[in-house]
Design brief:
Elements: H1 3-13, H2 17-30, E1 40-45, H3 49-59, E2 64-70, H4 74-85, E3 93-95, H5 99-102, E4 109-112, H6 119-128, E5 132-135, H7 143-155, E6 160-162, H8 170-181, E7 187-195, H9 216-220, H10 230-233, H11 244-260, E8 269-275, E9 288-294, E10 299-305, H12 316-320, E11 333-338, E12 342-346, E13 351-355, E14 361-365, H13 371-384, H14 392-410, E15 416-419, E16 424-425
Parallel strand pairs: 1-2, 1-4, 2-3, 4-5, 5-6, 7-10
Antiparallel strand pairs: 7-11, 8-9, 8-15, 9-10, 11-12, 12-13, 13-14, 15-16
Bound molecules: nicotinamide-adenine-dinucleotide.
Length: 449
């Protein structure tokens, strides 16, 4: 199924059709439409694990090429540039300050694969410079930041696609259609699992010399100034750079769950408990988090972390082949309980199966890893100015499920009520201090984008 069809069908299903349609026409006017065969010129920002995968993946698409590969560690950028040369004729330039990319008139878009604390500011600067953006998940570090990303995308009429690639999976569309058909009955409970294998983890925070070539100050960017240490560089563990495993991994399933449920509005209240009880790790983001979300007419839970070795991720045969996972020990599953049937849904290509009470399988759809559609969808939207499959607006609402749970956890597991219009907590003022990070001078996300 062509990805634009997925985009169109999902897009038409949302309540924001009128607003978004108006936006699409202005976006088309704002930038001359490219023809289907026109080359899309990209710059990569963040040449780590995911950046390398995007560099090779995007450069392997027809008429897509990288002009710049940027990392605050030039050795990493050079390594990725070498991989890209094998995929495209043009040799990309290695850059250490991504602001240089914004001055380049040839560049259509940037792919941002930095740690999370840079996502919002880099996206907003890119939009202000007239560049389209593919930004990795979790798109924002806080709720306020996410709102500013939407404002920038709309104000500068930019395409902003988020790396929630499950939105481009054809099987996610058929799962959503199945739920809509009513065969499952009324959905009453959605259980999201993201229990990764783990162990004791005690990062070394002793200040150490900055590794040769690395610009640590620019790595920190908007985050508070701290000396370099090997433990800090493992950024998933620290609230200043990331929302932990919950944001780094569970966000994929929370987003997929929202999509197949028809993108419901924000939950009325959220509570999240957990901690480092399993292995006593000395890191800020917890080994285990269990959240409960009260939506209007159903309840969602999410159990996430690195606190048990009883579950495992789907392997390649399950993500890209014909094999189904053993659902009870699969840690990437979503269970959707209707009043008549149960849907088991896996991310990143696994697919879905529906069972009745006696365990009888009544429907299924298998998939393959959706990067295959998600990257081309971005390139197509840069040309056509259509809204991408994982536009920043719905991605923001999915990211907020992470932020709601993390805020509840960080204030001691209190149940928080949330006003979805003002995007503020209504029953506990101190929770609102988590809406917006304390930025360093020169790296502030502006109030007015
Ligand atoms: N969608 C997915 O399936 C998926 C999979 C893995 C990772 N991710 C996401 O991709 C992002 C990157 O993750 P990763 O695992 O590649 O991390 P990583 O630590 O391997 O890479 C991050 C890179 O960004 C660089 N960087 C930091 N600040 C920079 C700046 N100001 N300018 C340029 N480069 C800068 C770092 O030096 C590093 O090389 C994260 O948001 C992560 O959640 C998404």
């Amino acid at each position: 199924m062509p990805s634009t069809n997925v985009s169109r069908r999902r897009f038409l299903a949302t309540t924001a059709v009128a607003t978004s349609t108006a936006w699409m026409s202005t976006a088309r006017r704002a930038r001359a439409q490219k023809s289907p065969g026109d080359t899309v010129v990209l710059g990569l920002i963040g040449a780590g694990g995911r950046g390398a995968s995007h560099a090779v993946g995007f450069a392997g698409l027809e008429n897509v090429q990288f002009k710049h590969i940027c990392d605050v560690n030039p050795a990493k950028a050079a390594n990725v540039a070498r991989q890209v040369i094998e995929k495209q004729k043009r040799e990309p330039e290695v850059v250490t300050d991504f602001r240089r990319l914004f001055d380049d008139k040839d560049l259509d878009a940037v792919v941002i694969a930095t740690p999370e604390h840079w996502h919002a500011l880099a996206t907003i600067w890119a939009c202000q410079a007239g560049k389209d953006v593919y930004v990795e998940k979790n798109p924002s570090l806080t709720i306020w930041e996410g709102r500013k990303m939407i404002e920038a995308a709309r104000k500068y009429r930019r395409i902003v696609q988020v790396g929630f690639q499950n939105r481009s999976a054809p099987y996610a569309v058929t799962a959503r259609d199945y739920l809509r058909s009513g065969k499952l009955g009324k959905v009453v409970l959605v259980k999201v699992y993201n229990l990764l294998q783990g162990g004791s983890w005690n990062p070394d925070l002793t200040p150490a010399p900055v590794p040769p070539g690395l610009d640590w100050d620019r790595w920190l960017g908007p985050a508070p100034e701290v000396p370099y240490s090997p433990g800090r560089a493992y950024w998933y563990d620290w609230w200043d750079y990331c929302g932990g495993v919950y944001s780094g991994d569970a966000s994929h399933q929370l987003d997929l769950a929202r999509m197949v449920l028809g993108d419901p509005p924000a939950p009325k209240s959220t509570v999240c408990l957990g901690g480092n009880q399993a292995f006593g790790s000395k890191r800020e983001t917890p080994e285990l988090q269990c959240a409960t979300y009260a939506f209007d007419d159903f309840t969602m839970t999410c159990d996430s972390g690195t606190a048990t070795n009883m579950m495992r991720k789907s392997n390649n045969d399950e993500r890209n082949g014909t094999k189904w996972p053993h659902w009870p020990t699969n840690n990437e599953r979503i269970e959707i309980y209707g009043t008549k049937q149960l849907m088991m849904l896996g991310r990143h290509g696994v697919g879905w199966q529906v069972f009745e009470t006696d365990g009888k399988l009544v429907a299924e759809d298998k998939g393959v890893h959706p990067d295959k559609w998600h990257r081309p969808n971005f390139a197509e939207c840069v040309r056509s100015r259509e809204l991408p499959n994982s536009d920043i607006e719905q991605a923001h609402h999915s990211a907020n499920l992470v932020h709601l749970a993390n805020t509840s956890f960080r204030i001691g597991g209190r149940q928080l009520t949330f006003d979805p219009v003002a995007e503020r907590f209504t029953n506990h003022e101190p929770a609102n201090t988590f809406l917006r990070p304390n930025y360093r001078k020169d790296y502030r996300v502006p109030d007015a984008v």
